[in-house]
Amino acid sequence: MLTKTLLNANFGFSKMVHDVKTDTKKILMPLLIILVFASLVPVYIMYTRLLKTVYLQLFVLGQEGALFAMTFSGAAIVVLFFGLIYAMSTFYFSKDLDKLLFLPLKEESIVASKFINMVIYEYMIIVPILAPVFFIPFEEMGGILYSVFFIFGVLLLPVIPLSIGTILVMLVMKFINIEGKKDILRTISLFLFLIVLIVFQLLVNKAATSIPPGSEGEYIEALLRNQNSLVNIVGRTYPPAIWLSKGLFASNSLIGIFSFFSYAAVSIAFGIGVVFVGKKLYVQGYFNKSDSAKKQVALEYDKDVVSSSPWKAIFLNDMKMVMRTPITCSIA
Length: 332
Fold this sequence. Notes:
By secondary structure, this protein is mainly alpha-helical. The chain contains 18 helices and no strands. It has one domain (63-298).
């Protein structure tokens, strides 16, 4: 029930339908959203053709399973990138916790509902990215187990990266008072995470592509001799993608079934872990330092208020507006 309420509050479908019924002019907003998605169709067609070309090249080399590792790893990194921001917004920048705590709800239920809401939100990003990956190799690998593994694999994909991002946010927020610091926390966290992500990616790529000097030929020969051995190299960026990839391209074998269930078990364990960690840290982190007495300082206009030029005031106000949207700030 709480999960459904949070979904209605965040996505606003009910409110949108009500607004359209009461004011026909507001139907322009849904039409605008449809128009935006329609404008992305040519780009999506190019993306699908690119995946098809990559798959054909990998198929010739006997490494077609690497397509799964490549796309699932990329999707997981995207989820991890946005997950940090979503976790901060969902758990700490929303104002619903002080109301939810007075309802007859367990703390783990609140954390689980918020986390499920984040996972469902991520489906809007990863489903379009991974949908072509299901159909491209279907003729060679398709079957009942392949279809079931792919669907459940996509449903579980956001769990691990979102769990990692959420736990990191909870650990940080336990020792930080967020009162009056939301904008700066959004921006600093985004740039720090960008730096960590880039450094991690560089280290993984270096380790994955490091070939002993003078043995390049033997390395490539050994790589091509073993079918789908490229999966283990590509999946180093996100190791769970290796299990899911093996579960898909070997779905009719015991190795494939074992690999998929290993991936599912680890994903569920991460999901349960974030609920238990959230039960211990979420409320404490959200109300950190709130129990301390707040000192009320009288404002003396002559001493505390400093006049500023209109140009400076406008510039600072615009900068604050940009900083409140970390994605826009990073693009700028």
